[in-house]
Amino acid sequence: MTTITRFAPSPTGRLHVGNIRTALHNWMLARKAGGRFLLRIDDTDAERSREEYVEAIRDDLDWLGLSPDGEERQSERLEKYEAAFEALKAAGRVYPAYETAQELELKRKIQLGRGLPPIYDRGSLKLSEEERAAKEAEGISPHWRFKLDHDEPIRWEDGVRGPQKFDPAQLSDPVIRRADGSWLYMLPSAVDDLDMGVTDVLRGEDHVSNTAVQIQMFTALIAARNAAQQIPRFAHEALLVGKEGKLSKRLGSLGCDAFRERDIEPEAIIALLARLGTSQPVEPISDRGQLVESFDLSTFGRAPAKFDDTELDRLNAAIVHSLPFDAVAGRLPKGMDEAGWHAIRPNLTHVCEAGEWWRLVTGPIAERDFSAEDRGYLSAAAGALEWSDDPWHALTAKLKASTGRKGKPLFLPLRQALTGMDHGPDMGELLPLIGEERARARLEAAARE
Ligand code: GLU
Question: What is the catalytic activity of this protein (predicted)?
């Protein structure tokens, strides 16, 4: 059976790093199995869903290189949910409920006050036909709950958490539909997972108890439809937290725009999120194939995965150092060619810093103060400069022989005079880019100052 995974964001905001991680893991799971990765837009909440967010989600996935193999929208499938609802109703698995939000809140408070878990007491299920008719006559339109089967524990083998067991009597019958007819997340998601042939549901551990409920929905739907459909496998990954170990507000708004603004390569984000929270080392791997190959749910830990910006920057630097010219040409300063990129690349944490370093080639450079002795040395250097394929090594060899200088006194004044800086790109690579004329002028200027 082809593996089918899905990423199911609600378009009520931009994707954040936690969503990106879920999308990535679903993408990798599908890729590794040679299967399909679906984007499902969970837009049943017409009030809060926005088309601009749908587009932003697509753009972000595209930028990250996680383009889906297919896209579905819940708002286009409302009649499917209606049919499933009717089938479940006919099977006695959904029932109308009439409590107001205030009544429910009061019930909860009383239960908590008595030290009881706040489980819905099935008050509406116990209403007689007449009592129900009376409620409707009062003009109260019901919302709808799915009736959990209390007979047996709910079990599944979780891809990350191992064997799971829930007592359904400890769960509230979930509300699946509001009084205005609109859908809550639970039922549409189960209908879609069945209809789209989703084989693996991989999502955050905040969904564990939803899974317990949805497993009963899957079972009820399959029975009601008398269909040869299958309940997906489930895996719930530990949540992503800030490096201080807490769920962080900042992470909840950290998304692709912020990464782009910081000039983080998508490959750095992917390399980090692919391995974070697993027992595999986080490494600057820009080969997706390698990451996909090593993807393995059994390496996922139960402890929260800690997201650290410093680690992201470190990975970004390592990935930038290996980026080929073609991959960055459009983002480099004017005139910077392949040799320029290769000379400058090792000094970068982010590609956008290339311009600062390229100024060492094009000038102007910072003026430095030299001692009289160094000025003499630099004047000799200007005289000794000879152009060849490797002018730097020719120059330093000559100066070493003629002045007896070595190490820092040999190299540093030359670097300072030629670039205005104490450190930077390899001079052997940089000097040919600076060129003979500019190099001589800089040495002469430094000798004069
Ligand atoms: N729309 C749901 C969410 O964003 C999807 C959860 C799921 O993957 O089933 O939480």
Answer: tRNA(Glu) + L-glutamate + ATP = L-glutamyl-tRNA(Glu) + AMP + diphosphate
